[in-house]
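On clarity, I found the account of how folds are encoded harder to follow than it need be. Since the whole study asks how a given chain folds, the encoding of that fold should be made plain. The format is easy to grasp once an entry is in front of the reader. For illustration, here is how one protein appears when written out as sequence plus structure tokens.
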Amino acid sequence: MTMLSFDDLGFLGSGLRRPECVACTAAGAIWVSHALPEGGGGVARLLPDGSLQPLLARAGMPDDFMPNGWSMAPDGSFLIANLGESGGAWRLRSDGNCEPVLTEVDGLRLPSVNFVHRAEDGGLWISVSTWRAPRDRAFHRDVADGFVIRMPDPADPASARIVADGLGYANEVKVDPSGTWLYANETMARRVSRWKLAERGLGPRETVADYLDGVFPDGFEFDAEGGIWCASVMSNRVVRVAPDGSQSVVLEDCDPAEVDDAMAHWRDGTFDRSYMNVGAARRLKNIASITFGGPDLKTAYLGSLAGDSLVTFRSPVAGAKPPHWHF
């Protein structure tokens, strides 16, 4: 697959803050995470001219509410992971009211939550990167206390169970288009894993790919040919994992010396947030997620941790239709 240059990129919107997660629909809507400088936030709709229509949490949310990974629901609400230390998964309604979806599991209060995925069947899959607080204490290759929660009934917190644990900083988690597998990016283990879905849980973990040096996986998306597109923080790389497990770097914006330095610290256990943040100084601003949109699902949109707009490019491969495509 041919590697893109900056000339192949576009930028959509302005004034976004921490646009970490993006979702598109068949009707043309583009929604993105939007935080506030003073804390809190929600999501924003990007209009065709790049202007914003914010939908901010105004009542019911915790004081340290920080929107991270989220999914759309059929009723127009948003299921949002709270990255603040009070944690939990929350529903943001169109009037700005927030309500808890899940704040504890197996009798334990949830810490910072990374991502909420609403699958085709309506069930929720929730990833928690680590039990540790602050989360930076898990920025080590030998820490593996991340986990995934399955919540088959979004209206019943009692239905939630931890179904996978021991993950090396669990990040985005999604059911694949076939409905057969659950996939997850593990940022500090630097791999993408999957589990076969079973009636009462998950099968054993399988490694789909150990990522190339310099890839610290955050968000990902499936394409129509069975590939997985991964957004890497720190190195600002987009990597496609083909169905056979081979990897292609589609885009990157990094200093090779900084990448080598970060990898050395990852290997010897001295990696910390300062190495993760080097990507914020580059043009792509620490990309963190990827999704596909447009009429043909061939326009890719990249969310980021430090940008104020979305990066876009035309993909040679169409994305798979996500569960919210026709919402």
The helical segments are 256-268, 273-276.
